[in-house]
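== Folding task for one protein ==

=== Format: two labelled lines per protein ===

==== Paired sequence and structure tokens ====
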Amino acid sequence: MLGLPLITLGQDLRFALRQLRRAPGFTATAIGTLGLAMGATLTMAGIANSTLLAPLPYPESDRLVGVAFTFPQERPNNEQTGSAADFLSAHAKSFSSMGLTEDSAGGANLWIDEAGSGRAVQVGSQKVTRGYFPALGVQPQLGRNFSEAEDRPGGPKVVLLSERLWRSAFAGSTDVVGRVVHVNGESYTVTGVMQPSPKDQGYSAPGVGINVDLWLPMQLSPKDPGYGGDNYTMVARLKQGVTLSAAQQELNALKEPFYQENPQYRAWTTRSKLLHDFKLWPLKDVEVSHLQSSVLALTGAVLAVLLAACLNLAGLMTARGLRRGRELAVRSSLGATRTGLLRLLLSESVLIATAGIALGMLLSRLMVPALTAASPIAIPTIETDLPLLTLLVGLLLGTLTVAFSLLPAMRVLQGDKMDALRNGHVVGTTKEKATLEKVLVVAQVAVATVLLAVSSLMMGSFLKLRSTDTGFKPQQLVIAQVTLKGDGYAKTEPTTQFIEEVMRRLGEYPGVTSVAAINGLPLDRGLNAGVGPADRPELRKVGELRLITPGYIPTMGIPLAMGRDLSESDGANAVKVVLISATAAKHWWPNRSAIGEQVNMGGKKPDLRTVVGIVGDVHTNSLADLPRPVVYVPFSQAGDGLTKVVNGWFPTTFTVRMATHQDSAKILAQAVSAADPTIPVARVKTMQAMIDSTMKAPRFFSWMAAAFAGFALLLTAIGLFGLLSYQVSLRLREIGVRLAVGASRGQVLRLFLGRGLALTATGLVLGIAASFALPQLIGSLMEDFVYSNSTSPTALLSSTSVAMAVTGAGMVMAALAASYLPARRAALTEPTTILRAE
């Protein structure tokens, strides 16, 4: 008895396959659109799983938390100050281990001994406390972790190596433990080699990834220049049996004692006078907090495309079912049951869905590496062989596809079979069935409108950022960065001597028109410090502080608005002078010239410097940020303490303006090596490439949104074209009669064009209404990746009215293109031929 249903099912599938082979255009369109939509959906399912859902790759990762000293309304983070970290380490009892690390990775100069000589290479480094790796549950695969004595201020100089560096620089030698290596010109003893870990990845600047290959003990001390600021991150492991809520309650109780011990932090308040809290979140939430909005936005866009594809398939299946009305009526008259007919139509849907899923899986394997390479977000490694995930998502998508195609098929079978037999192919023209197709097209238009609105807003914002004036001239400008860490460059004199020697050598090369140096390049990281006018201490706020050499302003092409530039006479023993940006001059001395005024760069001990020039504003962090006060100080006039801080945190950048195209990397490496062979060049690139790197995220999301919108628009045009073509085929007799009694061909053309535009207008209104929530959503997404200090995320967006106008125009043009051919076919109908056939 079981064999008969299987035989019947096999017959239905074979017949459905023959029917699909006879309609190659329909079959290719249905499978192709579903395959593309399902490929994108499966890819995003893998990304969402690996990024948002998969647990962190650490032992008992559910006990890992990020601990922050932060405003109450902030999203999950683990930013800490040195003071708060020390306080929590001394008083918090909920954690079995706690670890602290610098909030960003940096470069380190490693000298690799080779046969008879050696060479310097730049590697990523980071300082961590001895409890950092135990908190993560990661142990060295060779040697040991830092000891308590090694992590104290002034402790021994030791280092941990990554497995990657161990194998590449030390050939995987097991006797590396205890060996002395030279880092930043100083001797360090290797204590161990760490296991490969996701924590080998870090960021040296916003959006600039770096592989961490060296870990140094933090040796945290109140004397450290970053101790009082939120320059660290903290991870901790909950004790067995301690819940997240219990640990949070303990931190809440520690808040007031901390402020009593550290009253200076009471000044860190919001406009509503809210103080920082001790907050903790699961470490997984912290790790994905900057990715969540972008991944969810992409997933939403992909699901919208999938919905458009399913609506398109439903429309195609409805039209195909109505065209087969006479065939189905004949089968019913010969004894076929409605269940059998429904199974026949369902067989086609199952075959299409299966082929679409298979194509989607194939496309997903191709999309994953391409998307990972192009994405500005750090997508974890996606396992392409995820049988369970692929099976579940595939089954869900297949069920959704079959459901969308099954509903129209059921409506087709509700028709009157006798009416079908009497009227031949003129079947399915009831108001209800016509309404079903219209609803599907209107829904497609609405979905495509939302995606087109997203695309317009994103692309407009990208173009707006692209056209933003940087404040300098990037053409023919090359930059090279070096790291000047260690005792050899802890003072101003050796630092300036090295910089001057490199600049002298670079200036001797043909084709170099000018050269200068800065600590904190525009659109890169730089020092922020408390600065303000000496005569108005209430205006003292955190601003940007940059050390530069004379000639930096003209080399960069920054306009000099007033006063003079720095000169060689502004040396260590001369009067202390500064240049300030136009924004600083406007904010600090709005009603008079700033030339001759004094800027205070000190804290409790004043550090007064005279303003000798005002220069144009530049974007310090991203093209989307608002101008901030910037103070430019001569390298030679920086105190030893400031030089040590700056060299320890940030690279020094040489800016070289070239008159001709030549191998700039070679001449830069030669000049630096001649000045100090232990210093490698870390990064050489054009300034335009630097600008382009800050645009990677807006460009990526803009093009992704455009691709989704274009695909949805294409599906909508196909659906509208199919509906109008089918209506023309059903109404040929009516069209012939209209033309025979005097209707003009233009009237017939306008009739069907009007139908297409009416459906489009309905969907357009619904889509635009649903798009009103987009600006805030997209603004938040853009803000995550352009590092803006704008007052509102929506300030990053282009005009919403312009975006909606573009959306409406694009949709109307697509509707006209899809409606014209069927309408033209109707208008060119010969009435005599139709009526003679009747």
User: Anything to note?
Assistant: The radius of gyration is 34 Å. The chain has 25 helices and 24 strands. The longest strand covers residues 117-128. Residues 475 and 688 are 7 Å apart (CA to CA).
